[in-house]
Amino acid sequence: AEAIVMGPGSWYTSVLAGLLIPGIHDAVVASSATRILVLNLVAQPGETSGFSPQGHLHVLSQAFPEVPVDVVLADPSHVPDELALRAACDELGAELVLRPVSDARAGEGHHDPLLLGRAFAEDRSVWIPGVHWSHTTARVLTLDRVGGIKSQHVLPDRVDHRSHRHRRPRVAGI
Description:
Layout: E1 3-6, H1 11-18, H2 22-30, E2 34-38, H3 53-63, E3 71-74, H4 82-92, E4 95-98, H5 113-122, E5 145-146, E6 149-150, E7 159-160, E8 165-166
Parallel strand pairs: 1-2, 2-3, 3-4
Antiparallel strand pairs: 5-6, 7-8
């Protein structure tokens, strides 16, 4: 992989929980890919209430000190103390990238997949190869690989556009 993206999501039950799985944990630690952490926009009631953006990073570094993070992507409008967040990123050895990625239309705390896609496509620090804009919608971000297979090898009928239900990808030659 060229990039591993962790987050956004429920901090303890999605993002950190994935790192408890030995195979995933070991792959993230050993990978030469750029490890990108997309910070949540707001604290999740009952899970991270009262957490600042840098508080999330502190919990990650305490729970998984061996897991490297290369880049932290955050929305500047949801970072109340940029200097404190930069300091937390420095402690992790990560670069802080501030890009607008929130979806004001969806309400507080929602990322806009198109803005996330643009951040991944346009900012070399968080670049993920091949954002396919012609197949990206407000709810689906289409990248260069589908299930680990380069998208050029996945036949175009993988999505039933009439029902918007995803089908299992058909791979050319298989």
